[in-house]
């Protein structure tokens, strides 16, 4: 009888190695999620730069000289040659960002499922939620700066 009662308790209790393995896997998932977010941010910055350059080049003469970085080498071209390539790059960046956003959402779901499955609680997460609730009730205490010179 002692074996029957003892067996379920030993199955529920995790060994130290298993616990560390679960935490390590969770950290790996979160790091993958962070790296996806960093890549998305980098590509969004590139996309914004492309938009600015495209807007600028649309206002200038099509025969005007411009320079483009190709493989680390500055190449002289005309606006007519560069503008279609920039527009194509912008479209490709948009597609890549969209696909990475889909991957980020699925990775977030995977992290949340793993957290729920293994009952993982992140330290400080409850403290942050409580401080956000108190911040919204107390209002903002910012600094007002005049634009007058």
Automatic annotation (TrEMBL):
Keywords: Chaperone, Coiled coil. Residues 127-149 are annotated as: Disordered. One of its GO terms (molecular function) is unfolded protein binding. Residues 133-142 have a biased composition (Low complexity). GO terms for cellular component: prefoldin complex. Binds specifically to cytosolic chaperonin (c-CPN) and transfers target proteins to it. Binds to nascent polypeptide chain and promotes folding in an environment in which there are many competing pathways for nonnative proteins. Heterohexamer of two PFD-alpha type and four PFD-beta type subunits. Belongs to the prefoldin subunit beta family. This is Prefoldin subunit 2.
